[in-house]
UniProtKB/TrEMBL annotation:
<keyword id="KW-0645">Protease</keyword>
<keyword id="KW-0732">Signal</keyword>
<dbReference type="InterPro" id="IPR023827">
    <property type="entry name" value="Peptidase_S8_Asp-AS"/>
</dbReference>
<dbReference type="Pfam" id="PF05922">
    <property type="entry name" value="Inhibitor_I9"/>
</dbReference>
<dbReference type="Pfam" id="PF00082">
    <property type="entry name" value="Peptidase_S8"/>
</dbReference>
<feature type="domain" description="Peptidase S8/S53">
    <location>
        <begin position="90"/>
        <end position="209"/>
    </location>
</feature>
<dbReference type="InterPro" id="IPR036852">
    <property type="entry name" value="Peptidase_S8/S53_dom_sf"/>
</dbReference>
<dbReference type="InterPro" id="IPR045051">
    <property type="entry name" value="SBT"/>
</dbReference>
<dbReference type="GO" id="GO:0004252">
    <property type="term" value="F:serine-type endopeptidase activity"/>
</dbReference>
<dbReference type="InterPro" id="IPR037045">
    <property type="entry name" value="S8pro/Inhibitor_I9_sf"/>
</dbReference>
<dbReference type="InterPro" id="IPR000209">
    <property type="entry name" value="Peptidase_S8/S53_dom"/>
</dbReference>
<feature type="domain" description="Inhibitor I9">
    <location>
        <begin position="3"/>
        <end position="66"/>
    </location>
</feature>
<protein>
    <submittedName>
        <fullName>Uncharacterized protein</fullName>
    </submittedName>
</protein>
<comment type="similarity">
    <text>Belongs to the peptidase S8 family.</text>
</comment>
<dbReference type="InterPro" id="IPR015500">
    <property type="entry name" value="Peptidase_S8_subtilisin-rel"/>
</dbReference>
<dbReference type="GO" id="GO:0006508">
    <property type="term" value="P:proteolysis"/>
</dbReference>
<keyword id="KW-0378">Hydrolase</keyword>
Length: 239
C-alpha cells in the first residue's frame, strides 16, 4: 500500500476530515515502524474511534526532553581492540540522528575526502540545508509547515557531528528542547524508508513509564525488522 492509500485508510477511522475549528484531524500517518496515525480527537471522539474494527491502542502525544552524555567508555569501546576496531569504526554506516536539526555549514560535516553514500541510500535534504558526501540527508517533521531542518539550538549539531567516520542524516523532530512523540515517530518512519543503518536519539521522557506504555520502544523493536539499530539516551539530563 503506497503512502496516499495508507493515509486514506487511516482517515476512515476519523469522524470527520476537519475539526470543529477547521483544522485537519489527521496529523501524521505511519507505515514502517508501526501501523498507526496521529490525529486531533476529543475524549468522546477517541472513544468512538476505539470501537472501530482494527483499533488496538491509543497514546497521548507527549513532549520529550533533549538529553546528552558521553558513552564510549561506558559501552567499552576502544580504538585498539574489540567490536569498534573489528567493524572498521563504523565506516560506511549511515547514521540517522533525530534531534533539533543540523548546522549544514559546520566543519564536522565537510565532505572532503569522503566517498559517495551507499547505493541503497534514498534520503535527501530539505530547506536551506544542502547535502554532500558526509551529510547525506536532512528533513524536518515539525508542525506548522516548518520544513527547514536547520539547527537553531545546537543540540542536534552536537549529537550529529559526533559520528566522525560515517554518513550522517538528520531528522528534525524537536523545537528547542521540546520533542513531540508524533514528530519523533514520523522521523523514525522516514529513517526506515530512507535506509539508515543506525538511529541515534538523544531524547528522554523526563518521567518514568512502564515498558509497555512507552510506544517508542515498541517502534524501536520494529525497526530491527528492517535491519536497523536504534540507540537512545540512557537518562542523563541537565537541569
Amino acid at each position: 500500500m503506497d503512502e496516499a492509500a495508507h493515509r486514506q485508510w487511516h482517515k476512515q477511522f476519523l469522524p470527520t476530515t476537519l475539526t470543529a475549528a477547521g483544522e485537519p484531524r489527521l496529523l501524521r500517518s505511519y507505515r514502517f515502524i508501526f501501523n498507526g496515525f496521529a490525529a486531533r480527537l476529543t475524549d468522546a471522539e477517541l472513544e468512538a474511534v476505539a470501537k472501530k474494527l482494527g483499533f488496538l491502542r491509543s497514546f497521548p502525544d507527549r513532549v520529550r526532553e533533549l538529553l546528552t552524555t558521553h558513552t564510549p567508555k561506558f559501552l567499552g569501546l576502544s580504538r585498539d581492540a574489540g567490536v569498534w576496531q573489528d567493524t572498521s569504526y563504523g565506516k560506511g554506516v549511515v547514521i540517522g540522528v533525530i534531534d533539533t536539526g543540523i548546522n549544514g555549514g559546520h566543519p564536522s560535516v565537510d565532505n572532503h575526502g569522503i566517498a559517495s553514500p551507499p547505493a541503497k541510500w534514498k534520503g535527501s535534504c530539505q530547506g536551506s540545508v544542502r547535502c554532500n558526501h558526509k551529510l547525506v540527508g536532512a528533513k524536518s517533521f515539525l508542525d506548522g509547515g516548518n520544513y527547514d531542518p536547520s539547527d537553531h539550538d545546537g543540540h542536534g549539531t552536537h549529537t550529529a557531528t559526533t559520528a566522525a567516520g560515517n554518513f550522517v542524516v538528520t531528522y528534525k523532530a524537536c523545537d528547542g528542547h521540546n520533542c513531540n512523540d508524533s514528530a519523533i515517530l514520523r522521523a523514525m518512519d522516514a529513517a526506515v524508508d530512507d535506509g539508515v543503518d543506525v538511529m541515534s536519539i538523544s531524547i528522554g521522557a523526563g518521567v518514568a513509564h512502564r515498558h509497555w506504555r512507552v510506544h517508542r520502544r515498541v517502534q524501536a523493536y520494529r525497526c530491527r525488522g528492517f535491519g536497523g539499530q536504534r540507540r537512545t539516551a540512557g537518562g542523563v539530563c541537565q537541569k
